[in-house]
């Protein structure tokens, strides 16, 4: 337990000037980590490991924000004038409606903010901590001082740490020190207590990132007590969450306000010049302004985005940057990793090659049960020293753990790999020969490690046996390994690696790779002194031992997902660190690589200029044996060809490519913090099919936004047309401001939201991707808004005119009929908006029950203001009879059905033409 001196002692302690032992003592912790009780007590004392967030908007500010909208201010201004003109009922009702609308907007926004905040939690960083002797992964916020944690390349350092073990550990500390070159870390104490942060090389600070190697450390400060916490105010605040579309719509809203004010001015002035009454004209002006402004639009866009993002989470795609929701629908290329994304990442060694002989290995999954076969006959691997050495290297040069887990209460037990599946497969392979980690480490102990990374493509460990002999055991990509070998182990003897032996190794490697096996090579080298390990490049002059080929079956759902992409005009490219032949074989199995598609490898890329790559990239489907830095070149080349690129990655070196891609994607399970932070989208199941699901949702969300933009704007056009033509014809006001406001804010809102959660059309993944630069009104939407709007306006006006003709003394009745026609025409039109291209008959009316319910409730609201006697004087309505209603309904249906009929005849013509031919 920590003493009650509390964090003051933590803050003032010069951890870097203490030895590791002193640090651990001071933190009162052993290498096996804290106990749960310790953790509980320390959490009470220090709180969560979080930086205080910037000021959050209070609920009140959020509510008041609703009224800061320019459009609403115009309305309130008009209301004020009505008030001054002593039209109190109007003024009060308008204010009431504006407040109701404010509440609706407020609740929607709170809900949207909540769901976006929960996204943040989903993508929060984690830490690998050792507590009570067990390793586990916890949210970084749960760390407390004294926790022992492990670090690995790609981690964002989760707290301030004193290092206790390092293996080639380097961190990039520019966030804290401004120094952008990575700093190599050590564990020895630093004598100068006043050393600057950059010189405290035995410490790692929160917010910096691990660029290479591995390490272990003890947490010395968390949350606001870290160095980062001290400068937390300087840290950039959250990114602007507005999407380009939201910004464009906001801009559009402003333009509409000016248009509305312009039209209003024209009408008012014309009216007054014609000798109309000032107040009448003012009323007309306000009505027009109200009609033209789509008040509900911004709020509905936010809610549609937020709900869409929720749907994506259900399909296991977590959106980190809201604008990417829009870009997703524009993706033309997906560049995907192979291992784990296209494949299952469940490796099983099927073949081993040693000195010209292939051995088969039986057994499936991670259960260490199986046999070694030579020409179909079972052999004992322990009797073949070369094979035994290969298996030992596989087990020792390994950081994975093979464990047996009990599945529930039943008998069933399951073998599970913790760590890298490639290494897990080697543990299983060793296990099949009875070679287990714990047993072998009794005779040959691991002393040091040079970790694997995807640039080196190999990993080594230094071991010492009972006799004190030291060996560097190496495993890695065969081609990389071979270039570092000078000898080979053949039947227990070390012989020089002749050209023909080299050739036979390469052939065996190719043969296995063509069978879609992932091949690893194994080698070793005796070392005489640990100092040799510190040499610049100790993995030289190695003795080659053999090869192991492992199967990593493709994910079942991926084949279909790739077909879906093809239909949707999206190309899939495989980018992998694996061997070219392996990559090619799997790409063919998955249908990624067509007959004449090009396969390039890292060497090819190295020799190509950027322009040559740009010229070839459209015909290339597989990039094999690439290093992460190649990914950036590939993204840039694709973008130069005009592609919108989605790119996956998981390692620290993938971050630049993920950032440069139009949609950077990282892996929720195997991804590093750095890759996740760079990405716009996280796949919580690491699965390629999830990218396709996210693209489908992205397209759906955009379609839905277009659907309600169409609905709301067509409604507004209808209102303007009604009012404007009536003015020009010198008719009385067909709709009162209060009625228009009611329609815009109350009866239109619910159906528009329901369109925002509409089901996607069946052909959504059969269309080509949308052009990024396309306007929201593209592909005929602008025409549809105007044509439907004008027809709705004319129908309303016609009904009003008819009402006036039949009963000239009853203006209120004519207005009520116009009001009802407007509302009903819109509520019918809303069903037409569900299909972008095909119109009302292409979709099942009852598929979107939210829409049906919202249309019913909007109709009910209309009936309420018409038939509830106390509301009639406020809305100036009168009850209508059956005949009037018949007229209203027929007129309301005309705009939608007239155009549907026109479309039907237009579509029928070419069909007739075809049959005549
Ligand atoms: P992808 O890029 O599609 O995820 P990958 O997993 O094969 O494919 P890397 O992890 O960069 O890509 O691995 C590159 C190569 O390094 C592999 O083909 C393999 O030969 C070798 N390799 C992979 N994992 C290890 C490891 N743990 N130890 C040693 N070598 C490895």
UniProtKB/TrEMBL annotation:
One GO cellular component term noted in the UniProt record for this chain: plasma membrane
UniProt subcellular location: Cell membrane
Pfam families: Cation_ATPase, Cation_ATPase_C, Cation_ATPase_N, E1-E2_ATPase
Classification via InterPro entries: ATPase_P-typ_cation-transptr_C (IPR006068), ATPase_P-typ_cation-transptr_N (IPR004014), ATPase_P-typ_cyto_dom_N (IPR023299), ATPase_P-typ_P_site (IPR018303), ATPase_P-typ_TM_dom_sf (IPR023298), ATPase_P-typ_transduc_dom_A_sf (IPR008250), ATPase_P-type_domA (IPR059000), Cation_transp_ATPase_P-type (IPR050510)
Catalytic activity, EC: 7.2.2.10
PANTHER family: CATION TRANSPORTING ATPASE, SODIUM/POTASSIUM-TRANSPORTING ATPASE SUBUNIT ALPHA
Biological process according to GO: intracellular potassium ion homeostasis; intracellular sodium ion homeostasis; potassium ion import across plasma membrane; proton transmembrane transport; sodium ion export across plasma membrane
Matching NCBIfam families: ATPase-IIA1_Ca, ATPase-IIA2_Ca, ATPase_P-type
UniProt keywords, alphabetically: ATP-binding, Calcium, Calcium transport, Cell membrane, Ion transport, Magnesium, Membrane, Metal-binding, Nucleotide-binding, Phosphoprotein, Translocase, Transmembrane, Transmembrane helix, Transport
Protein known as: P-type Ca(2+) transporter
Transmembrane portions of the chain: 91-110, 255-275, 281-307, 708-729, 735-757, 785-804, 816-836, 848-870, 882-901
Domain Cation-transporting P-type ATPase N-terminal: 14-87
Top EC class of this enzyme: translocase
Gene Ontology MF terms in the entry: ATP binding; ATP hydrolysis activity; metal ion binding; P-type calcium transporter activity; P-type sodium:potassium-exchanging transporter activity
Topology class, membrane: Multi-pass membrane protein
Chemical reaction(s) catalysed: Ca(2+)(in) + ATP + H2O = Ca(2+)(out) + ADP + phosphate + H(+)
Family from the record: Belongs to the cation transport ATPase (P-type) (TC 3.A.3) family. Type IIA subfamily.
């Amino acid at each position: 337990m920590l003493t009650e001196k509390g964090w003051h002692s933590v803050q003032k302690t010069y951890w870097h000037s203490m030895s590791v032992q002193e640090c651990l003592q001071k933190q009162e912790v052993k290498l096996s980590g804290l106990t749960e009780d310790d953790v509980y007590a320390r959490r009470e004392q220090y709180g969560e490991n979080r930086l205080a967030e910037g000021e959050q908007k209070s609920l009140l500010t959020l509510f008041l924000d609703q009224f800061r909208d320019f459009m609403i201010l115009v309305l309130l201004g008009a209301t004020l004038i009505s008030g001054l003109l002593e039209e109190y009922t109007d003024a009060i009702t308008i204010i009431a409606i504006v407040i109701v609308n404010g509440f609706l907007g407020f609740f929607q926004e709170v809900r949207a903010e909540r769901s976006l905040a929960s996204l943040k939690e989903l993508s929060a960083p984690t830490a690998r901590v050792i507590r009570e002797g067990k390793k586990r992964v916890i949210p970084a916020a749960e760390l407390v001082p004294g926790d022992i944690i492990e670090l690995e390349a790609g981690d964002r350092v989760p707290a301030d740490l004193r290092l206790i073990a390092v293996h080639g550990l380097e961190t990039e500390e520019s966030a804290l020190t401004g120094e952008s070159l990575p700093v190599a870390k050590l564990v020895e104490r630093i004598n100068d207590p006043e050393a600057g942060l950059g010189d405290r090389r035995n410490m790692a600070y929160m917010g910096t990132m691990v660029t290479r190697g591995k390490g272990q450390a003890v947490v010395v400060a968390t949350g606001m007590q870290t160095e980062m916490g001290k400068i937390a105010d300087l840290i950039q605040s959250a990114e602007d969450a507005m999407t380009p579309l939201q910004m464009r719509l906001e801009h559009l809203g402003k333009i509409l306000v000016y248009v509305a004010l312009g039209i209003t001015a024209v009408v008012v002035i014309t009216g007054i010049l014609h000798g109309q009454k000032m107040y009448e004209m003012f009323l007309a002006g306000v009505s027009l302004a109200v009609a033209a402004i789509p008040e509900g639009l911004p709020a509905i866009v936010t809610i549609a985005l937020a709900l869409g993002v929720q749907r994506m989470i259900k399909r296991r795609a977590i959106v980190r940057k809201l604008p990417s929701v829009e870009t997703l629908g524009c993706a033309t290329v997906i560049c995907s990793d192979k291992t784990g994304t296209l494949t299952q990442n469940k490796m099983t060694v099927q073949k081993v090659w040693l000195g010209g002989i292939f051995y088969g290995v039986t057994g499936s999954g991670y259960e260490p049960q199986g046999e070694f076969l030579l020409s179909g006959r079972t052999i004992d691997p322990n009797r073949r020293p070369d094979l035994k050495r290969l298996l030992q290297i596989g087990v020792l040069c390994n950081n994975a753990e093979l464990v047996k887990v009990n599945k529930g209460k039943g008998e069933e037990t399951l073998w599970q790999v913790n760590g890298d599946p490639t290494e897990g497969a080697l543990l299983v392979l060793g296990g099949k020969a009875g070679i287990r980690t714990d047993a072998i480490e009794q005779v040959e102990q691991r002393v040091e490690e040079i970790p694997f990374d995807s640039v080196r493509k190999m990993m080594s460990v230094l071991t010492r046996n009972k006799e004190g002999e030291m060996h560097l055991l190496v495993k890695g990509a065969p081609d990389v390994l071979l270039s570092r070998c000078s000898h080979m182990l053949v039947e227990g003897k070390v012989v020089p690696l002749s050209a023909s032996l080299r050739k036979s190794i390469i052939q065996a490697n190719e043969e296995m790779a063509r069978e879609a096996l992932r091949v690893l090579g194994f080698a070793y080298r005796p070392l005489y002194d640990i100092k040799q390990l510190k040499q610049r490049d100790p993995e030289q002059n190695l003795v080659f031992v053999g090869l192991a080929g492992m199967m990593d079956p493709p994910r079942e759902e991926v084949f279909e997902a790739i077909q879906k992409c093809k239909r949707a005009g999206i190309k899939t490219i495989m980018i992998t660190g694996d061997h070219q032949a392996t990559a090619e074989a799997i790409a063919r199995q998955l249908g990624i690589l067509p007959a004449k598609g090009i396969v390039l490898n890292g060497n090819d890329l190295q020799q190509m200029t950027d322009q040559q790559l740009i010229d070839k990239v459209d015909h290339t489907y597989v990039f094999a044996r690439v290093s992460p830095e190649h990914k950036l070149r590939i993204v840039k080349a694709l973008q130069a060809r005009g592609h919108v690129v989605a790119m996956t990655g998981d390692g620290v070196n993938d971050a630049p490519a993920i950032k440069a891609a139009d949609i950077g994607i990282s892996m929720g399970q195997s991804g590093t913090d750095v890759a996740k932070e760079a990405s716009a989208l996280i796949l919580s199941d690491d699965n390629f099919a999830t990218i396709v699901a996210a693209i489908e949702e992205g397209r759906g969300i955009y379609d839905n936004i277009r659907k309600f933009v169409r609905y709301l704007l067509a409604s507004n056009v209808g209102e303007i047309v009604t009012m404007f033509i009536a003015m020009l014809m010198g008719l009385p006001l067909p709709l009162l401001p209060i009625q228009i406001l009611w329609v815009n804010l109350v009866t239109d809102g619910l159906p528009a939201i329901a369109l925002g959660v509409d089901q996607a059309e069946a052909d959504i993944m059969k269309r080509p991707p949308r052009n990024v630069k396309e306007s929201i009104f593209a592909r005929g939407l602008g025409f549809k808004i105007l044509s439907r709007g004008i027809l709705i306006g004319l129908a309303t006006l016609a009904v009003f005119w008819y009402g006036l003709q039949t009963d000239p003394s009853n203006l209120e009745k004519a207005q009520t009929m116009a009001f009802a026609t407007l509302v009903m025409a819109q509520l019918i039109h809303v069903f037409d908006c569900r299909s972008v291209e095909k119109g009302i008959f292409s979709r099942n009316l009852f598929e979107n029950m939210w829409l049906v319910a919202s249309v019913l409730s909007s109709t009910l609201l209309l009936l309420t203001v018409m038939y509830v006697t106390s509301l009639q004087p406020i809305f100036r309505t009168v009850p209508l009879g059956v005949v009037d209603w018949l007229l209203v309904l027929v007129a309301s249906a005309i705009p939608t059905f007239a155009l549907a009929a026109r479309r039907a005849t237009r579509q029928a013509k070419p069909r007739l033409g075809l049959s005549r031919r």
